[in-house]
C-alpha cells in the first residue's frame, strides 16, 4: 500500500506524536474558552451536560464504521482526513462567532461532527503504535504520548485565559485551526509502516458491520480483555459526571482565571505522570499498574470534593491527573500487545464504543444529580447540611463536591472488586 514501509521507526512516531500534541493544545484552547462561554450563557449544569452529550454520542455511533475504515485503508490518510474535518469544524464555529451568529445549536452540530472525526483519528493513530515501535518500547511510546496530552492540559487553560482577553474567543479558535493544519502537515511528512494482512482476512468478503463484529467478538471471547473493558466502562461513568460538573462546581467557588490555574496545576501532574511512564515504561505487569493507579485516582477524586479550598482542590486534581497517564498507558500497552495489528482498528473502535458507552448515560445523569438532588441538599437549610455541612461546607457547588467524593470512593471500590477476578489479573498471560 502506498505510504507504508516495513521497519520500526521511533522517529516517525515522535513526529506524529508532536503534530497530534500541538493539535491537542489547540483543541484545549477552544474547549476551555467555549466551556466558560457556554456555562456563563446558560448558567445550567443540565444544559452544559446536554451539549457535551450531543457532542459525544456521534462518535459512539460512528465507531463501528470508523474501525473498519481504519483497517481497510491507509491509516495515514484516515488521520489526515479526520484532522482536516475537525479543523474545518473549528473554523466554521470561529466564523459564526465573528459574524455574531453563533448560537447553542451550532455548538451541538459542530461538536458532534468534530467527535465523529475523532472516532476515525483515534484508532488510526493508536493502531500505528505497534507498527512504529518495537514491543519492548511500547511503554515508553505510550508514556511520551500521555506526556503530550498532559502538556495540552497544562498549557491550554493558562494560554486560553491569557489569549481570550487579548484576541477574543474567535482568535483562540483561529489558533486552534492553525494547530490542525500543523498536525496534517506532520502526518503528510512521514511514511507509515507496511501493514501485513493475513491471507484469511484478505480472502474474507464481509460487510462493514460484519467486520466490526470481528473486533467485538475478539474481545467478547477473551474474559480478561472483556473484564478490563468492563472496568473501564464503569469508571468512565464516574469520570463522565466529574468532567461535566467540575467547571460548574469551580465557577460557583471562584473566577475563570483561577479555574484555568487549577486546571494547569492538574495538567502539570499529568505531565509528570507521563514523563515518569516514558522513562520507566510502567510496571512489568501492566494490569497491576492499571488497577493500582486507578485505585489511587479514586482516593484523590474523593479529596477533590471534600472542601471548598482551592489549595486542596488543586492538589487533589494534581494527584488525579498524575495517575491518568499511568492508568491509560498501562491499559493501552495491554491492548497493543494482545491485538494483532491488522485488526487493531476495528478492535480499538469496538473498545472505544463499549468502554465509553457509559459516558453518555453519565452526561444525562450529571445535570439532574447536581441541579435537582445534591445542590439542594447542601443549600442553606438542606437536608444533608447538619450531617455533612461541617465537612463539605454549604452553598453553591458543595453538593457537587459531595457527589465527587462518592464517585471517587466508587472508582476505588471498582478496582478492588476487579482485582479479585482472576481472568482480569491474568489478562496479560491470556
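-> sequence recovered:
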Amino acid at each position: 500500500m502506498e505510504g507504508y514501509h516495513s521497519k520500526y521507526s521511533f522517529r516517525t512516531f515522535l513526529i506524529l506524536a508532536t503534530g497530534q500534541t500541538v493539535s491537542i493544545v489547540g483543541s484545549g484552547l477552544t474547549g476551555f474558552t467555549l466551556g466558560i462561554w457556554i456555562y456563563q450563557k446558560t448558567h445550567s449544569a443540565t444544559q452544559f451536560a446536554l451539549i457535551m452529550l450531543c457532542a459525544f454520542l456521534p462518535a459512539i455511533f460512528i465507531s463501528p464504521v470508523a474501525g473498519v475504515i481504519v483497517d481497510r485503508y491507509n491509516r495515514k490518510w484516515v488521520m489526515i482526513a479526520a484532522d482536516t474535518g475537525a479543523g474545518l469544524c473549528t473554523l466554521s464555529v470561529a466564523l459564526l462567532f465573528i459574524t455574531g451568529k453563533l448560537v447553542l445549536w451550532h455548538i451541538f452540530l459542530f461538536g458532534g461532527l468534530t467527535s465523529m472525526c475523532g472516532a476515525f483519528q483515534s484508532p488510526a493513530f493508536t493502531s500505528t503504535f505497534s507498527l512504529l515501535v518495537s514491543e519492548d518500547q511500547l511503554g515508553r511510546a505510550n508514556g511520551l504520548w500521555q506526556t503530550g496530552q498532559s502538556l495540552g492540559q497544562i498549557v491550554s487553560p493558562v494560554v486560553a485565559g491569557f489569549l481570550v482577553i487579548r484576541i477574543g474567543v474567535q482568535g483562540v479558535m483561529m489558533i486552534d485551526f492553525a494547530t490542525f493544519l500543523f498536525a496534517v502537515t506532520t502526518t503528510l511528512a512521514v511514511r507509515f509502516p507496511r501493514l501485513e494482512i493475513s491471507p484469511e482476512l484478505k480472502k474474507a468478503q464481509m460487510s462493514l458491520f460484519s467486520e466490526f463484529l470481528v473486533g467485538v467478538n475478539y474481545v467478547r471471547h477473551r474474559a480478561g480483555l472483556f473484564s478490563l473493558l468492563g472496568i473501564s466502562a464503569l469508571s468512565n461513568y464516574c469520570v463522565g459526571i466529574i468532567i461535566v460538573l467540575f467547571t460548574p462546581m469551580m465557577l460557583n467557588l471562584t473566577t475563570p482565571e483561577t479555574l484555568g490555574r487549577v486546571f494547569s496545576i492538574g495538567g502539570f501532574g499529568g505531565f509528570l505522570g507521563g514523563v515518569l511512564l516514558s522513562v520507566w515504561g510502567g510496571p512489568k505487569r501492566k494490569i497491576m499498574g492499571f488497577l493500582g493507579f486507578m485505585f489511587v485516582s479514586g482516593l484523590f477524586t474523593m479529596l477533590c470534593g471534600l472542601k471548598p479550598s482551592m489549595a486542596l482542590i488543586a492538589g487533589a486534581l494534581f494527584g488525579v491527573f498524575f495517575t491518568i497517564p499511568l492508568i491509560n498507558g498501562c491499559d493501552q500497552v495491554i491492548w497493543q500487545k494482545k491485538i494483532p495489528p491488522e485488526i487493531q482498528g476495528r478492535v480499538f473502535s469496538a473498545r472505544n464504543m463499549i468502554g465509553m458507552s457509559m459516558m453518555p448515560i453519565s452526561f444525562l445523569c450529571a445535570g439532574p444529580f447536581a441541579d435537582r438532588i445534591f445542590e439542594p441538599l447542601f443549600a442553606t437549610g438542606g437536608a444533608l447540611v447538619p450531617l455533612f455541612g461541617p465537612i463539605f461546607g454549604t452553598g453553591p457547588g458543595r453538593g457537587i463536591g459531595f457527589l465527587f467524593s462518592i464517585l471517587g470512593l466508587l472508582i476505588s471500590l471498582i478496582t478492588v472488586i476487579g482485582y479479585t477476578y482472576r481472568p482480569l489479573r491474568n489478562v496479560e498471560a491470556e
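The two ends are 32 Å apart (CA to CA).
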